[in-house]
Amino acid sequence: MQLSEIQNRILAPFVDETIKALDTMAGFKGTAGVGFQDDPLNFKFKGYAVVAETSGAIEGKILMHHYPETALAIGNQVRHRVLGETSAAVELNSDIGEALAEFGNTAIGLATRSLTQADLGVRFRPPYLTSNMEDMITLLMYVDEILSIPIHVENIGRFYFNYLLHAKVRR
């Protein structure tokens, strides 16, 4: 099922800032695919995710969710372009994780700033990186709906922007 107009509007700043950060921080061209609703019961962890939790009007978690190959490629390029690192890592390690976290923090931070200024009643916690399957189990707790948008990175592959929405609790 495709996303509604309002769902696309909520995710648009995250997608836009991610595509800009791909260019400025990693030198990669990215494009957004068509958004869709994922099934929470069949949601699969892909390896690395930068997570920002939301509260207030929308309870949930925003994930920049990478396959290992996109994590490695983007992490290496961020290390090269932003940190001046000349060697390329051949496997996922703490240096790649730190670079990927910086990339995700930048994109998510810029997006959350614009949404905060729009005064939608959504509060954002600072993003953090996870590569642990046990963390993903915890992140999926209380999730009722998942909105996903693929980000295609030219000559690299793709990763996803996911918004894990919690069920509304009636008070």
Annotation keywords:
about 170 residues; alpha+beta; 8-stranded antiparallel β-sheet; 8 strands; about 30% strand
Overview of this structure, please?
With 171 residues, the chain is an alpha+beta fold. The chain has helices at 5-26, 68-81, 94-117, 133-139, and strands spanning 30-32, 36-38, 48-56, 60-66, 122-124, 128-130, 143-153, 157-166. Strands 1, 2, 3, 4, 5, 6, 7 and 8 form an eight-stranded antiparallel sheet that branches. Helix 2 packs across helix 3. The longest helix has 24 residues, at 94-117. The model has no long low-confidence stretch (mean pLDDT 85).
Task: Report how far the terminal alpha carbons are from each other.
Answer: 30 Å
Number of helices, counting only DSSP H or I runs of 4 residues or more: 4
> Helix and strand succession?
HEEEEHHEEHEE
The chain-level mean pLDDT equals: 85
**Uncertain runs:** none
Which range does the strand content fall in? 25-35%
Structural class: alpha+beta
Largest sheet composition: 8 strands, antiparallel
- Radius of gyration based on Cα positions: 15 Å
Dominant shape: globular
Number of strands: 8
Helix content: 25-40%
